[in-house]
């Protein structure tokens, strides 16, 4: 025990306190991640959500980019090129080569219309308007309605929920009763009534959707607020005499953010769906404006003979809905690791 | 229990009262008159028509009359069909809607449970992937798109089912499928998540350790416990079906209340719109009450006085 091991001096290397590179090589800790970075990392691992995010980015860029560059004017009527099927140059598959079946025979519709040199990716509608441009235009209108409605829904829902949860007691009970009453009428019925009063149009659709869809957000935010307000840091802030409004913004809101973001991802497709339904019934967007709902309605009339006129908007609508749903699922897993294994 | 029930029924009546009041005054705010061609009518003719429908009385009197009528199930006379009481119009139309709605709900939920359960049992296999894809597609494709596709391919192209109209059971198949897709997808997703959770719990481990067969564990322990929370989404699913039916009934020309609602909206038929709004709310309230009570009965852990959120 007493004899000490004699180590030769030269087996050690002296490092200076200010030799950064040498010091860093000793570190084993990973860089510490913030909550957002951690969620982002998990989101990128989820293939479905990641692809959805990219798809949505493309849809957004194309829909809003068409304001600047559009293949054709979405409202330019050209009767001589009416009802041309889709034609993508270089693709010879029936359905994408500009041919359609007429009286049992497959004919080149473009040649017949005297437009062999032209091509319309998604074809044209019954007035000869380029369907691709109209789908882009319709997508833009649908997205704007959904986003603005969601923004309202966010502000109303989050404020209502936070207030109700924070106050508790009698006020909370009354506020929850109000929500229960709103929830006991089907949303679409309320939206239709509101649109009738406000006259059909884009603004009234936005208002109607915003006024009806915040209830879900309010309930979730309330439940979360009631949980958070019992935490010590809120108690500390209150003891230190922080004003409730500041507590709400500085302490509550950041901790509610994941609930809010996840729920938004499910509100947006809902709003798109309501808008499409309303336009489909005929009390939504009116021509010459177009939305995915009106395009579907127009396309459905000719579905038997010109199926592409409905397939395209239906496809785009479903893709957008799918992407938002998958992204919502991915975000839920990313923000709340407990839900996944 | 009786106290809870009485409280809930009181709230139901209160809710309906508020719904009636709100719709009544909203309808009074509506622009446009129910007269198709007002310019062609003389002043005295308009006065006569208004008197016939009781529109000449002050608003508060109209409101009280309406309220008194609504309690007895009388929602006034339709503007569109001049001699038909709304209650008669709706009672003759509610049958088809109820039939399709219930069929869609039952089909959707049962198939959804099967799909979800298989997904959870074979987690992360191709079965699970297929189940997930089916449920995500069912949620993403709007019912009216599905309705048109079904109508065209199964109805017109293959000729298996009639494309529209209302007759026997065969006429209900396509609308039921179109409406049932969302409940199917939602319940499949729900059951899968629940069951994955349940399968990893201690009592499942115990059941396995006791030597129960695989089917025994799945059927008696896992499935039963995963199904209880499913009751909570029946309410939202009912809303979904009601919403969907408005468009789907139109596509298949079914003489139901959804189709009538759209028609009444387009013709400014206020009494019918009001009657329908009240009926929709009533049905939804009953569904919500029923599911809440059922939840308490099925799952003793939930105290009946508590909230089932």
UniProtKB/TrEMBL annotation, chain A:
Keyword Cell membrane in the entry? The reply is yes
- Residue ranges of the TM segments: 49-69, 141-166, 178-198, 204-221, 252-274, 310-328
Superkingdom in the source lineage: Bacteria
Q: Which residues form the ABC transmembrane type-1 domain?
A: 139-328
Q: What is its main location?
A: membrane
The secretion signal range is none
Topology in the lipid bilayer is annotated as: Multi-pass membrane protein
Q: Which PANTHER family match?
A: OLIGOPEPTIDE TRANSPORT SYSTEM PERMEASE PROTEIN AMID, OLIGOPEPTIDE TRANSPORT SYSTEM PERMEASE PROTEIN APPC
Q: What does the sequence similarity comment in the record state about its family?
A: Belongs to the binding-protein-dependent transport system permease family. OppBC subfamily.
Task: Kindly provide the name given to this protein in its UniProt entry.
Answer: ABC transporter permease
Q: What is the lineage of its organism?
A: Bacteria, Bacillati, Bacillota, Bacilli, Lactobacillales
TrEMBL record, chain B:
Which positions fall inside the ABC transmembrane type-1 domain? 94-295
The regions listed as transmembrane in this protein's record are 9-27, 100-121, 133-154, 166-185, 227-252, 272-298
Which InterPro entries does this one have?
A: BPD_transp_1_N, MetI-like, MetI-like_sf
Q: Which UniProt keywords apply?
A: Cell membrane, Membrane, Transmembrane, Transmembrane helix, Transport
Pfam families, per the entry = BPD_transp_1 (PF00528), BPD_transp_1_N (PF19300)
Q: How does it sit in the membrane?
A: Multi-pass membrane protein
Cross-referenced PROSITE patterns, in alphabetical order?
ABC_TM1
**What is the top-level taxon of the source organism?**
Bacteria
Keyword Transmembrane helix included in the entry's annotation: yes
According to its UniProt record, where is this protein located? Answer: Cell membrane
Q: Which PANTHER family match?
A: DIPEPTIDE TRANSPORT SYSTEM PERMEASE PROTEIN DPPB-RELATED (PTHR43163:SF6)
**Family according to the record:** Belongs to the binding-protein-dependent transport system permease family.
In Swiss-Prot or TrEMBL terms, this protein is called Oligopeptide ABC transporter permease
Q: What is the lineage of its organism?
A: Bacteria, Bacillati, Bacillota, Bacilli, Lactobacillales
